[in-house]
Amino acid sequence: MSSNSNVWMFLAFGTGIRRQFRPVFTARETLRLNSDPHPSVLRGIGRKGSAPSFLPRGRPSAFPPQEAHLHPPSPPPEEPAGADEPTTGAQIRALERSFKDRNALLDARGRDFHAVLQGALRKKLRNTAITRANSACLPMGGRVAVKYNGVNEGEERKGGHGIPKVSMVPLIFLIFYEVSGGPFGIEDSVKAAGPLLAIVGFLLFALIWSIPEALITAEMGTMFPENGGYVVWVSSALGPFWGFQQGWAKWLSGVIDNALYPVLFLDYVKSSVPALGGGLPRTLAVLILTVALTYMNYRGLTIVGWVAVLLGVFSLLPFFVMGVIAIPRIEPSRWLEVDLGSVNWGLYLNTLFWNLNYWDSISTLAGEIENPKRTLPRALSYALVLVVGGYLYPLITCTAAVPVVREYWSDGYFSDIARILGGVWLHSWVQAAAALSNMGNFLTEMSSDSYQLLGMAERGMLPEFFAKRSHYGTPLIGILFSAFGVILLSWMSFQEIIAAENYLYCFGMILEFIAFIKLRMTHPNASRPYKIPLGTIGAVLMIIPPALLIVVVMALASFKVMAVSIVAMIVGFVLQPCLVYVEKNRWLRFSISADLPDLPDSQEAAEDDAVPLVF
């Protein structure tokens, strides 16, 4: 039978078929184009002859009027109870292919394929934070089809690049290393203020900084489950200019932070290899270490995640053993030693702040996380316990087990305490753990920085080549840029690195807090799979203490650090308009990923929650 005969048969029996078989629409075909469809079937398409609401305003209707006779719609019946039953991707693709065959369409009278497809795809998108479909009109013969770029079956556990996503356990240790990596580096808090203020400081900072930042990351990261993280939050709330400034400040802060880990690594190793204490051997060691860890990052985020698990266990275990050995020697009176007159407040606050921040770094990898709306909040809570406990346990036991001489408490002093308490074997174990922990810090920080650049490129803030992935699924250009920045900044001292990165980080956190509150006010009904159980006023009160802390940390910065940081931010203010000019003149290619949804307004968000999928 010819194709023309099939069409005439379809039109001739249209009335009878409609009573037995409801018209079917897939994500790649739209048969009702210029009619007034039932709102629960085609939400978002306007009145007859108008353009659908999901097209940009002002675009003329692409639907030809001669197609109106194809779709005299009737209100759809109640959705069958089995519509939410799982349907495989192969079944969906087979059904979609069958709809393109008119003979198969006529033979399918007794089956409600619309309900099957809608139920299956709704199950995939029910928890999507932003459900407005990105659409593009494509020619389909004499009609116009609407291509929806949504979540594809089979990509729940894999990214669009086919690489497995990060699961719960690796995610916990990725967060652990992005924030902490173990108690290495907390020694300066005792040197600056003594044991009592060091212990109290870690407790208070966890309450007024770490918990609020982790909660905001959980809410915003599940609201925007895509790479780029805080850049996307600020862009959605304050616009692309401030989104770029957020990305610039946070990327610089992350690269400066990463430049610290080769320094710490060599500080722990130089007691065994004195030649690495300075000069050309130290420079070559930094270079070789950076190249080796950069290659490991290039091989894939899944590998980085499981390496972080192994390194985390190995790095924390010697401190547990050291704490057990220290128990018989504990003298509680040593905890109470305090001399407020000799406190170095700048070093004290910067050390606490550096060891308890960067909870938002994991948000730049949200697009690589398996089921981020459920996994991310839980992983953040588990990592918070692991980080704070990993600081307080050795700090409490070691400060009470050995006499406190504050001048001794500097980078690497825990290995000396291990020698006193357990001997050479424990000393060597702590040194090895410190070295490997710095490797974990480097790997995870570089992952966060490079995926942030990828997310910015997907949003059109950076040239398109930043969004290119290697065959391992990793952002190659972002990794290379981050590694180059680490090498350039590795000459800075430990204290200078901490102060410089904290200053830039504070600038970024101010923008994050503003974006968080603004989105709470302007989009109260937007889908938030995890929401902090506070209203707008409660959210404002929650961020007041960390905001005040930011002001204090920035005020205590040295003039050198302050000047360098301000110059860096001015560079960002100039760089963004320059990139816009480059894009306007087409000197470099910029593009926006079609898979990124836009933030709907509050009314649309409420509708999206009620009707999560339309086709």
UniProtKB/TrEMBL annotation:
Region ranges (Disordered): 35-87
Principal location class: membrane
Topology in membrane: Multi-pass membrane protein
Keyword Transmembrane helix: yes
Ranges annotated as spanning the membrane: 166-186, 192-216, 228-245, 280-298, 304-327, 382-405, 417-436, 476-494, 500-520, 532-556, 562-582
Intracellular or extracellular location(s): Cell membrane
GO cellular component terms attached to this protein's record: plasma membrane
One Gene Ontology term of the molecular function aspect: polyamine transmembrane transporter activity
Keyword Metal-binding assigned: no
Keywords attached to this entry: Cell membrane, Membrane, Symport, Transmembrane, Transmembrane helix, Transport
Family the entry assigns: Belongs to the amino acid-polyamine-organocation (APC) superfamily. Polyamine:cation symporter (PHS) (TC 2.A.3.12) family.
Name this protein carries in UniProt: Polyamine transporter PUT1
Species whose genome carries this gene: Dichanthelium oligosanthes
